[in-house]
Amino acid sequence: MPADDRSRRTAPGESPTGPAAPAKLGTAARARAIAAAVREVPGVAGLSSGAFGTTATPDAGGRVEGVAVRDGEVEVGVVVLLDRPIPETAADVREAVHTAVCGGGGRVHVSVEDVAEAQTAPEGTATAAEGGGGDAG
């Protein structure tokens, strides 16, 4: 068997044993991964940074709205659909966050910022459905 080549240089974002796990990603990258996972949760119409815009993570291109990654905890602001029990949606959001960061421990705070009917969301929120359709008329 060939010997381990521990002298091999690593690429950015890679550990000596392979690609970095999501929990090892930078704060903004973790926030983007969390936001993508939360948008896929049934019952989530979109993300919200809250009434004062504080639920967000700084990113090179601006901010990741609706996800605040802080020391040892994650806060997520969501707009939920009324077609599903809100506690179930919140529990699934929490699970999605833990999955997105490889069960990375820490606390996950889910804040339901607003509710929406069907596939609509209030103005100013990032929606799960791109282009969402509407009345043509």
Q: Which structural traits does this protein have?
A:
alpha+beta, 137 residues, disordered N terminus, Alpha-Beta Plaits, five-stranded mixed beta sheet
CATH topology: Alpha-Beta Plaits
Q: Which regions contain 5 or more consecutive residues with pLDDT less than 50?
A: 1-23, 127-137
Q: How many domains make up the 3D coordinates?
A: 1
Order of helices and strands: EEHEEEEEHEE
Number of strands: 9
Helix count, per DSSP? 2
The structural class is alpha+beta
Q: Estimate the global geometry from the Cα principal axes.
A: globular
Span of the ends, CA to CA: 70 Å
Strand content bin = 25-35%
Query: What percent of residues adopt helix (DSSP H or I)?
Result: 10-25%
Q: What does the main sheet amount to?
A: 5 strands, mixed
The radius of gyration is 18 Å
Label the CATH architecture: 2-Layer Sandwich
Mean pLDDT: 77
Just give the CATH class. Answer: Alpha Beta
Write up what this structure looks like.
By secondary structure, the protein is α+β, with helices and mostly antiparallel strands. It has a single domain, classed as Alpha-Beta Plaits (2-Layer Sandwich). Helices cover 20% and strands 30% of the residues. The chain has helices at 27-39, 86-100; strands at 14-15, 18-19, 44-47, 56-59, 62-65, 67-70, 73-81, 107-116, 126-127. Strands 3, 6, 7, 8 and 9 form a 5-stranded mixed sheet that branches. It has a two-stranded antiparallel ribbon with strand order 1-2. Helix 1 runs antiparallel to helix 2. It is globular, with a radius of gyration of 18 Å. The model is unreliable at 1-23 and 127-137 (pLDDT under 50).
